[in-house]
Design brief:
Structural class: alpha+beta
Shape: elongated
Largest sheet: 3 strands, mixed
Helix content: 40-55%
Radius of gyration: 15 Å
Number of strands: 5
Number of helices: 4
């Protein structure tokens, strides 16, 4: 499927092997949804910007959580030219 010049792929059916380690699974269903993860990561990062001075010893954990998610999101956008991976799952875990 082509949307605005990007190819949207579901890895389950296409059989591509792309390194998309990282990120967070959504609600325990073994699927990584890119847009909700991006929204959540943005809110966490914004919270650190606004309230980081109040986080005391948890700032390192918050920064690590942001880094884990943003590294994944960058890989999902740059792993294959002209392709954005927005929903990723392990096929053997859903079937």
């Amino acid at each position: 499927m082509k949307i605005a010049g990007l190819t949207i792929l579901v890895l389950l059916f296409c059989g591509f092997q792309v390194n998309l380690v990282g990120g967070y699974y959504d609600a325990g269903d073994n699927v990584k949804f890119g847009l909700p993860m991006a929204f959540t990561t943005t809110l966490l990062a914004w919270s650190v910007i606004e309230f980081g001075s109040s986080m005391q010893n948890q700032i390192t954990n918050a920064e690590a959580a942001i880094r884990w998610s943003t590294d994944y999101l960058l890989k999902a956008a740059t792993a294959t030219p002209d392709t954005l991976y927005v929903q990723v799952s392990m096929h053997n875990e859903i079937l």
